[in-house]
Predict the structure.
Amino acid sequence: MNSTCYQFELDLKHKKERIESHLKMRLEYADWPPQLRAAMQYSVLAGGKRLRPFLLLSVCEILGTDIACALDAACAVEFIHTFSLIHDDLPALDNDDYRRGVPTNHRVFGDALAILSGDALLAEAFVCLTYQSQLPLTVQLELVRVLALATGAHGMTAGQVLDIANIGTCSESQLLRLHQLKTGALIEAAAHMGALIGGASPSLVNAVRVYAQQLGLAFQIVDDVLDVESTQEEMGKTAGRDKLKGKTTYVDLFGVQGAHRQAEQCIKQACESLSLLGDRAVPLLVLAQSVLDRRR
Amino acid sequence: MNSTCYQFELDLKHKKERIESHLKMRLEYADWPPQLRAAMQYSVLAGGKRLRPFLLLSVCEILGTDIACALDAACAVEFIHTFSLIHDDLPALDNDDYRRGVPTNHRVFGDALAILSGDALLAEAFVCLTYQSQLPLTVQLELVRVLALATGAHGMTAGQVLDIANIGTCSESQLLRLHQLKTGALIEAAAHMGALIGGASPSLVNAVRVYAQQLGLAFQIVDDVLDVESTQEEMGKTAGRDKLKGKTTYVDLFGVQGAHRQAEQCIKQACESLSLLGDRAVPLLVLAQSVLDRRR
């Protein structure tokens, strides 16, 4: 495959359709309390880029594995991502009113149901991981371990704790650690899980993880730039809030141009890490470029 | 083994020590943000009956398996239980100030950290389940499945959703479903997991699950009675709150004496379900009796 024949937008569209229909299916249990199911569906099916499940499926596919084998893992990762958004938006945390262009979960369902629907999505992610009986047992268990580590105190939740403490001055290394945990851990886990399902060798698993770490960092830096530059309408969430809350961002540390140069540097490193994949890496290289292009 | 030689209090003391030292060990990661680790440790190590992990270890042991094989599963169940208490106590849910005789997590660490430490415990439970490499892979995966189902929208979290909607009149069958989900699902999962680790036959797994369902129900009914009768000091949490909140309880439906008779009936059924275990069932029979004795 080379970059001239790979159609990113078409691939994204197809994979998003597969992901969204699978997400929908995994949220349709008649025996769940209706209000809980509605709150879970509301946030999971509110759109979004589906970056993490798309990444997981793409890694799996370039390793020659049918993405049908990876849909439940992709779904699990998106459930974890959505749970983190619901809890992060709560009045006790970031107190955001809009997300993905619509009112946040607690604004529609109240704080109690927002907390509980986040909890339920977290647990349901691990239920999803047990639906993959076509995968080797060792891989199934490794997926549980990678996702659980990325989710809790070793990963994303630790990043959220650092984020709520990020009031005032934050050094570059502190900000890097915050984002590696809060955003990077789950993006890395998505790529890692795709590689495990695709049966990647340890060196390939490692290459894909390095790619995802840098991709995640670039994604966050671009997010900081967009937060400063965008209007609420463009972002689909309340814009400029980081500034209002006194949170240190990459723009504070490096300015808009400097932050963008850093993002470009991350994407360069991400792409270089995939050299051993040769042409097979094209979809991941194009995905990396698209993260930078979010700026325009 | 017969009931004259089994020393329940001594067994409980020994197992509690093993459980608590394991819980402590699993919460000591130097790289976790200190305030997150402190909030997790605060609630997990605040004492408590350790009913669920004790049940898990007891079931495992009467099947002839060394409880050392089951400590991580026991720890996982207790992490899930503690996460549910932390979130349940939040102002947006039950708004409780005391739990296990000390201020609730959010009263000490604030709502944000209480939400996040609950999330982290939920995720960490699944990390724990991947530390059990001495168990067959199929058992390890089945443990993930049983625990995830008991935790989320198929189990405990669904019960919490029904509980926050339990304002006004609630029928006996609605109350039964609420408690089967909110309290019963995790107690049943604990026994189920112990049986899986102990290598139980399907019929034995089933017997142990029926026992735990009835045990859980009795536990809840006794809790309702205690909530009416006890002072805050005896309960270690704010007493009489169910009444204040207008929640329907078993005492509302059957009166104190009627509720106690129901609890006795549940314990009778629990014990009968274990007939195929013969004398090996003694520790579980004594445990069941102890749930009734909480009343005095």
The first helix of chain B runs from residue 8 to 25.
